Amino acid sequence: MTTMDSPQPPLHVVLYQPDIPQNTGNIGRTCVAVGAKLWLVRPLGYRLDDRYLKRAGMDYWQHLDWEAVDSWAELESRLPAERMWLLTRYATKLAWEVSFQPGDVLVFGSESRGLPDSLRERLAHRCLKLPMRPEVRSLNLASTANTIVYEAIRQFGGLP
């Protein structure tokens, strides 16, 4: 875990029980690019010293502000639920129908299971999706995260 000097990141990016280290590495690189903090909710589908994770994050990983937590409850105790946006294909609201703000929490589910039904139901008013044709079941996690992170940054005026 690296702690950066900036007091508050512009965004918090949460990966809920991610399965694929390459996606986490790529999302970590995006977080470095925009100054976001990456949160990983265990269990993870890989080890944190996985070579694929490091390779995908390349030499940026040492600059990443990140933290792994043991449960959703621990994450919720540390981040404001009223600032959370859950990305899921089951949402009815598109990502550009909301106004992102600095400090928002963007939550992405695992590649194989997505977010749990109980979480999506409890926070249904905070669920968002990207538009896609019915022939496509889902998009790659890293692609989705990049799209949403940069849309949020664009909405609130770019990087400091």
TrEMBL record:
Transmembrane segments: none annotated. InterPro entries: Alpha/beta_knot_MTases, SpoU_MeTrfase, TrmL, tRNA_m1G_MTases_N. This is Putative tRNA (cytidine(34)-2'-O)-methyltransferase. It is found in: Cytoplasm. Could methylate the ribose at the nucleotide 34 wobble position in tRNA. One of its GO terms (cellular component) is cytoplasm. Residues 11-150 form the tRNA/rRNA methyltransferase SpoU type domain. S-adenosyl-L-methionine binds at L87, G109, L130, S138. It catalyses: cytidine(34) in tRNA + S-adenosyl-L-methionine = 2'-O-methylcytidine(34) in tRNA + S-adenosyl-L-homocysteine + H(+); 5-carboxymethylaminomethyluridine(34) in tRNA(Leu) + S-adenosyl-L-methionine = 5-carboxymethylaminomethyl-2'-O-methyluridine(34) in tRNA(Leu) + S-adenosyl-L-homocysteine + H(+). It holds the Pfam family SpoU_methylase. Coiled coil: none annotated. It comes from Maioricimonas rarisocia. It is an enzyme of class 2 (transferase). One of its GO terms (biological process) is wobble position ribose methylation. Its EC number is 2.1.1.207. The lineage of its organism: Bacteria, Pseudomonadati, Planctomycetota, Planctomycetia, Planctomycetales. CDD domains: SpoU-like_TrmL (cd18094). Keywords: Cytoplasm, Methyltransferase, S-adenosyl-L-methionine, Transferase, tRNA processing. Its main location: cytoplasm. Belongs to the class IV-like SAM-binding methyltransferase superfamily. RNA methyltransferase TrmH family. TrmL subfamily.
